[in-house]
């Protein structure tokens, strides 16, 4: 039986509210929650109830539109002040995934170029819907692009969750896997658990099992030996930000890229154009450092001494020379070779 597409974020402007799957509770509890204020939405983003770069872009976009809809302002200037402040609040939730800022800025600019409160509300809603629709189309296009690099039978390693739960629908890395499965290819996936918050174990395996795609869960430290035993044909992961010289993705991605290179295994990134921050380089990217307790405990279970010092970066940068190709909605690119093409595409692109 074919499952309904997973859509982790829905925007209901008439209520107004943002409905989202609370991802911290998966896989044991599937709960849909509602954010009716920007503060509630910001909380969901901070605790990773909503997560994954493209989904953060959708959340940021809907959050600014929600702000416009609920703003209680006497004048247009006061209205603009309130919406801008909410946009800043959303911007401060997480620093690394560039899609978040892209979504926020896209809707904010629709508000700022309006000339009345009513017009701004309409424009904000349209812009937020456009971000979600564009991400949905884009993920399906990434899936199609990726078909050319997936052999008819393929054992694929992935890290973290770059699936429907991380996007508006379908997914980026898992979007390629879904499209290949749908095209009749014989796909089996190794999902890394992705310490410390287990997005691979909790979310990727849940999504793939739901779609009937063959998946085996491994701990992050098992990937190297699988590659050495020639049990992985290619690696595909998502990205939170792609700069001119590196790809940022969930912590642990770099280690898989190094291992893939050592074993001559193709290492692909799947990401939309909105994940590129091509004017910047690795040294300019702020890597989010999260609460040490995420490493000392998991859901209340102690995994390390209470007072042990912890380093908990959420992401790492993989130098572009370790990346075989970046699968996008516009084709497969390689950096630094295609940087000018990326810049041109971004200049010419609008969300619709
Ligand atoms: O901390 P998270 O769960 O938001 O991190 C998510 C990732 O690193 C994903 O791999 C990335 O956002 C790509 S999602 C299509």
Automatic annotation (TrEMBL):
Catalytic activity: 5-(methylsulfanyl)-alpha-D-ribose 1-phosphate = 5-(methylsulfanyl)-D-ribulose 1-phosphate
Binding site for substrate: 51-53, 94, 199, 249-250
GO biological process: L-methionine salvage from methylthioadenosine
UniProt KW keywords: Amino-acid biosynthesis, Isomerase, Methionine biosynthesis
Keyword match Amino-acid biosynthesis: yes
Pfam families the UniProt entry points to: IF-2B
Site (Transition state stabilizer): 160
Signal peptide (UniProt feature, chain positions): none
Entries under HAMAP family matching the protein: Salvage_MtnA (MF_01678)
General function of this protein: Catalyzes the interconversion of methylthioribose-1-phosphate (MTR-1-P) into methylthioribulose-1-phosphate (MTRu-1-P).
Protein family (similarity comment): Belongs to the EIF-2B alpha/beta/delta subunits family. MtnA subfamily.
Protein name per UniProt: Putative methylthioribose-1-phosphate isomerase
Gene behind this protein: mtnA
């Amino acid at each position: 039986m074919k499952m309904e597409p997973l859509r982790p974020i829905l925007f209901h402007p008439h209520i107004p509210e943002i409905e989202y799957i609370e991802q911290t509770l998966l896989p044991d509890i599937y709960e849909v929650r509602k954010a009716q204020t920007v503060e509630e939405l910001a909380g969901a983003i901070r605790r990773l109830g909503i997560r994954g770069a493209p989904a953060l872009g959708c959340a940021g976009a809907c959050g600014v539109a929600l702000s416009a809809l609920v703003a209680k302002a006497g004048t247009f200037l006061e209205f603009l002040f309130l919406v801008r402040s909410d946009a800043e609040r959303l911007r401060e939730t997480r620093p690394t995934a560039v899609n978040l800022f892209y979504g926020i800025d896209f809707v904010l600019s629709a508000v700022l170029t309006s000339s009345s409160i009513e017009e701004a509300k309409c424009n904000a809603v349209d812009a937020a819907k456009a971000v979600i629709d564009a991400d949905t189309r884009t993920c399906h296009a990434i899936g199609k692009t990726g078909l050319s690099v997936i052999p008819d039978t393929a054992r694929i390693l992935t890290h973290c969750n770059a699936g429907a739960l991380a996007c508006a629908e379908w997914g980026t890395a898992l979007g390629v896997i879904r499209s290949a499965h749908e095209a009749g290819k014989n796909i089996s996936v190794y999902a890394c658990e992705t310490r410390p918050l287990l997005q691979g174990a909790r979310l990727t395996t849940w999504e793939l099992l739901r779609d009937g795609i063959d998946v085996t869960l491994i701990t992050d430290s098992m990937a190297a030996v699988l590659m050495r035993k020639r049990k992985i044909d290619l690696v595909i992961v998502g990205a939170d930000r792609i700069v001119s010289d590196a790809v940022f993705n969930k912590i642990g991605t770099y280690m898989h890229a190094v291992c893939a290179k050592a074993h001559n295994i193709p290492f692909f990134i799947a990401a939309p154009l909105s994940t590129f921050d091509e004017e910047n380089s690795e040294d300019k990217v702020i890597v989010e450092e999260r609460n040490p307790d995420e490493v000392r405990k998991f859901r209340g279970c102690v995994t390390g001494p209470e007072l042990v010092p912890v380093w908990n970066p959420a992401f790492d940068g993989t130098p572009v020379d370790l990346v075989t190709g970046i699968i996008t909605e516009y084709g497969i690119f390689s950096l630094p070779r295609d940087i000018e093409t990326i810049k041109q595409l971004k200049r010419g692109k609008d969300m619709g």
